[in-house]
Amino acid sequence: MQPLRKGTWPGPARWQGLLPAAGLGVAAALALPVLTVAASVLQPTAEEITEFLRLVLPRYVANTLWLLAGVGAGTAVVGVGTAWLVSRYRFPGHRLAEGLLLLPLAVPAYLLAYTYADLLQYSGPVQSALRAWLGWERGYPFPEVRSLGGAVFVLTFVLYPYVYMLARAAFLDQSAGVLEVSRTLGHGAASTFFRVALPLARPGIVAGLTLVGMEVLADFGTVKYFELDTLATGVYLVWFSFGSVVGAGKLAACLMGFVVLLVALERLSRGRRRFDPLPSRGRPAADHLRGFRGFAALGACLLPPALGFGVPGGYLLWMAWWHGDPLWGPAFVRFAQNTFVLAASAAALAVVVATVLAYGLRLSPTPLMRFVARVVSLGYAVPGVVVAVGILVPFGWVDNALDVWARRWLGLSTGLVLSGTAATLVYAYLVRFLAVSLNTVEAGLSRIRPTLEGAARTLGHGPASVLVRVHAPLLRGSVFTAALLVFVDALKELPATLVLRPFNFDTLAVRVYLLASDERLAQASTAGLCIVAVGLLPVLLLNRAVARSREVASQPPSAVPGSTARVDVRSEFA
Amino acid sequence: MRTRLAILLFAAVVALPSAAPVVAQTRTLNLYNGRHYDVDQVLYDEFTRQTGVRVNLIQGDADQLIERIRAEGPNSPADVLITVDAGRLYRAQQLGLCQPVSSEVLNRRIPAHLRDPQGHWFGFTKRLRVIAYSRARVSRAALSTYEDLANPKWRGKVLVRSSSHVYNQSLVGAMIAWHGENFVQRWARGVVANFARPPQGGDIDQLRAIAVGEGDVAIVNHYYYLRLLNSANPADRAVAEQVGLFFPNQGVEDRGVHVNLSGACVVAASRNRDAAVAFLEFLASDRAQEVFAKGNFEFPAVRGITNPMAAVAPATLKEDTLNARVYAANGARALQLMVAAGWR
């Protein structure tokens, strides 16, 4: 690291208020769509829609709650369990398992829903084969895949990596001493896990679960495909079958209410306890699992990625091979290019905005600033199509107002300046996914001890200078992680892309939709497979980032030059 | 150095090659397209060849495209909106997004019940909602009408997709127009009682379910069956071979099979009206109508074009000529009745 010296940045006085103000401005701009939707609560709805909502709302809410509870429990068990195994034990193939466990991140939930529904329905290959081999007649017991249980299954195995990632980071972070003290005090492995390791890892786990909960609330593809009536499908139904934007907005606002509740619960669970980074003194020696126990552990760690990645990936590959997309060829290069450029731009912008915002929050944590930051995070739990409308409406208004103004004063028509551009699409991704990058960067920032900052400030550096010279190098790992996560999410995004994109501009996800909506699932598999393939690279990078942090962590601190490089993926969201 | 890099990166991202808004010019036509069949590309290319007008496309969900046109307001670049059912066209019209067109060509070639009386939209292909049945387990003689599907003799045998889909809303909307709400409410309860399984999947899923014996009769759009029958995949053909198609309500006094349509309108904000109307007229041409019929097995709206169903449909097929605008207007009410009856 370079020695700190007074840089060429303007003095502190001028920057003092500027950074937080910039953060506030950006955040306000990003909160616009969510606020637009929330505003519909204040408008009256037609009588027939109120009546309809009264009829269906209890079921929507009940299904949504069951889905949240089911996926929450599922991802907690799978995510925390596997994280504990790979971080505390050594068994044959544990390194491989560690990486494979992240793979479902590359698979969009709707693809998992398509493949499992196709595989497991009555007319699908699995049940057909069972009937053929065993001579079963109609009426045998077999779980219905298009059901609440099916949706919980699919969402659990596609979303558990969020919990896994954060729980593992938290477990890796735990100092050897604490766990060893527990063991020497006579607690067994299980008791140590439940009474010491788990409570200590709680902020990370809860943060992961919060992300999962938000993903569940925003999910439309899976629940729609499984004919499960949730608040998200209700938004579509009220909007499109009744043509009531206001009614849909009310349901969406209801959905956001759930998120606020979720976030409040998370804060409550954290309570007033603070989890400042403990200087960890090396890692506890990992226990070796041999023989049967080793293979059992490996099996337990391979099953989730097999279900969340292997099975759907394999089935897609099989379909694509035999009955793939007739457009496969140069057209796909364009789809992939569009997808990549959009996702990369969104990722780059997201980390810049997140850094400014997180830093602004740190410098001046005023209630207004905190409120706006929370509102911005809400976008992650709002279905993409709702975000899209929240963008279409104000942007259309601004565009047309501008056009009227230009005609009047300049005598020319500006047409639509914002609407229907790729830039609008990137903005939509920011609104949807900023929460991911913001949480990651915020967590990274919180791991930097304030004393460091104080020292730099005493040496005459302003906030901006400190950000660039002290924080930026220390935050590099978190920022990288944040960018990868946003990239993967943007890659998979469908609903907002579908509504907002420019002319003659298709992405891979759009291609999947165009074919799947026409009941050409087999042909859609090619584009689906491409999404997974493009998503694999960032997921592998994520895994490498984690692996590196582990190597650093397993060495004694003195041996690590600049050991602060460890910020990486650990408890980013906590 | 790192700072400069960051600034450069930021600038590059901001200057992202954003597709400039397509300004209405005489040489391009902007399609907001809720109909996305790859084969339709042939039509757009053909239109460009004939007229020199380039076609720009946004394909997507018609409802969402309508919302987009609405938000874009008077400056919307959209010239033509295409949908795969009358319900959406009617909604666009209700929102004031379609401009009336009086084209002698369109009025002559498109039958009156397949277009809006004031020329706000026109249907170009017909899609029949028919009854598919198991050849092995159902005799054709047992089939008669949509109404009959509420008969207890079909208990545990009826397959259909969710009521949230517009094809069902249009069908039931037409029944409301013919029979009134009270009848339809009873009918919907009867059908729900006859379900072989809770509604799920698309129309093709219903056909597959018949083939494997999950149910015996299904309400589906006709072209899905033909798609399976003509598929390159032998498994699809095997499904189609076990299934027969029945055209209901053909009795002497009866109204005929329910007809939905895929159609288009000229968007109110369009400043490219001439090209838009020319495009609509092109869609009604013999050449385009044949592409529709061959590409996706739909019935051409224009009379006299070879019918893709010639082998399956009776020569004197009776079609319900209720104007699409009537059943489309009943769509929301139809949904309410179905949901109240437990048709999810």
Short descriptors:
heterodimer, A: 574 residues, MetI-like fold, 22 helices, disordered C terminus, B: 344 residues, D-Maltodextrin-Binding Protein, domain 2, 2 domains, ten-stranded mixed β-sheet, 41% helix
Q: What is the CATH superfamily classification of chain A?
A: MetI-like
- Beta-strand percentage range of chain B: 15-25%
How much is the average pLDDT of chain A? 83
Determine the structural class of chain B based on helices, strands and strand pairing. Answer: alpha/beta
H/E order of the elements of chain A? HHHEHHHHHHHHHEHHHHHHHHHH
Largest interface, with counts of residues having CB < 8 Å to the other chain, equals: A-B, 72 and 68 residues
Number of domains of chain A: 1
| Overall 3D form of chain A | globular
Please state the second-level CATH architecture of the largest domain in chain B: 3-Layer(aba) Sandwich
Main sheet summary of chain B: 10 strands, mixed
Give the CATH level 1 class of chain A.
Answer: Mainly Alpha
Given the structure, what is the number of helices of chain B? 14
- By CATH's scheme, which homologous superfamily of the largest domain in chain B applies? Periplasmic binding protein-like II
Would you give the CATH topology of the largest domain in chain B?
D-Maltodextrin-Binding Protein, domain 2
Instruction: Return Rg of chain B in Å.
Output: 22 Å
Structural class of chain A: mainly alpha
Assigned CATH architecture of chain A? Orthogonal Bundle
| Order of H and E elements of chain B | HEHEHEHEHEEHHHEHHEEHHEHH
Quaternary structure classification = heterodimer
Rg of chain A (C-alpha, Å): 25 Å
The pLDDT mean of chain B sits at: 88
